[in-house]
């Protein structure tokens, strides 16, 4: 009796140990899943925030760079130098005021004004307004002192006259006997702040004093991002950098601390959108001594981590329960195997059941193998889609960055053409006209990049194929001449109107001509042949070169994004992919053949203008 009691006690302890071990396993797996999920989410959020901050930085720099030339232009203007020589001369002051007004009407900055060497504003673009800077002494502004000492200065502050915040670009005006004064451009960054607000992000720009100067939250403006010492408030107060009321002492974040390889901050308040714990990411702007800081709510991160931990714990618990049930089942089977004939029959039946289960398991394994194959195919398609998405983002960034210099170049060309007209210099006017056409073409190409990056419904448009080919040859003529390539091409006698944007078709042909030129760079015979064939409702353009040709194994992949047969650093593998997409959007097709050792031939087939419209109506009917 005592031995049976001891055995029962031993079995009870064993079960208790097994249950404790199972609970520990469930908790450990849940904890590991929580940490892995949270770490991955923090890393992903940090990478996304870094990309967003870089985009915001580029937008800010593009806007400031658009007005960077204004202080230099003001410093070199004879009207400005004349009024600094005689500040009390009303006629010179009137001429300088008119010059600054016209310059600002063209540039679109906030305000332009000129300060004498004692800090008094002698002329301004808003001389006629009630809140004009003329007559004000702004010598206490740090940008005046820094510009007089170093030649250039940058400073963000609230205007003491207008009460409007802006970014000041200052440049010293030097004379024969020393500094004459300072030319200042005030840039209103409200447009940048409004664009950021529309993005829905929680971001702010913090200056060298750790004070928030721009933010998507108006109540954060002119508040420290973290607590600031009273000595710092006393130091920056005389500068009136943040307006007459000065910087507010209540910080945006009451606490900031590092954790899990990132920074976190607690923001108090009753607003649910801006209260709680946030992940903090920042990007330094050394040129302005600023930092762009973004705040990402951590609630979704921890919620996903807890969900992953719960799922992992439940999965482990279910697995342990299954193992326990299997163990119990094995014990029951072992007991029944000890019985006589009746038990043997049941074992046979159980064996049959197991055989059926094995067959079902084999079928399940086969189905899983098929699912894994399908998953690999889906992953391949996802990789392709990710490449195309990266291509769209890159093209959008390029179009955005190029559009600002093109706009500035257009403005300068307009001014140069006006000067040429006034001087009646026809040669310069002709050259400027040619440059203006090139700038228009560059602007059109930028628009093409935007169209490729952001799909929009195309407007019906026609293009003369002969003119398009001639324009494309003009654009690559310098490269063809440089490589000594002969061109065989006869322009069609009759106009061939095709349906499509001429800039898009030119881009396709330029890609083909450039690729052909690169392929023939090392050949003895370099001939580029261009043929045009009119076949009913379609027209084909055949571009043939005498290069080394395309390997047979590479032909099926030449239109894939990022695929290139060129050496490292010679191409991204995007030209033919973009051309394929453009031709496809125009309702045409592009194909390539390459006989062994006899160069390559690309055929671009486009619908004629009238045929495309008829085909569209037939398709709709």
Automatic annotation (TrEMBL):
SMART domains noted in UniProt: HATPase_c (SM00387), HisKA (SM00388)
Recorded topology in the membrane: Multi-pass membrane protein
Main localisation: membrane
Reaction catalysed by this enzyme: ATP + protein L-histidine = ADP + protein N-phospho-L-histidine
InterPro entries xref list: HATPase_C_sf, HATPase_dom, His_kinase_dom, HisK_dim/P_dom, HisK_dim/P_sf, Sensor-like_sf, Sig_transdc_His_kin-like_C, Sig_transdc_His_kinase_DctB
Keyword presence, Ligase: no
Keyword check for ATP-binding: yes
Subcellular location: Cell membrane
EC number of this enzyme: 2.7.13.3
Record's keyword terms, sorted: ATP-binding, Cell membrane, Kinase, Membrane, Nucleotide-binding, Phosphoprotein, Transferase, Transmembrane, Transmembrane helix, Two-component regulatory system
Name the record gives this protein: histidine kinase
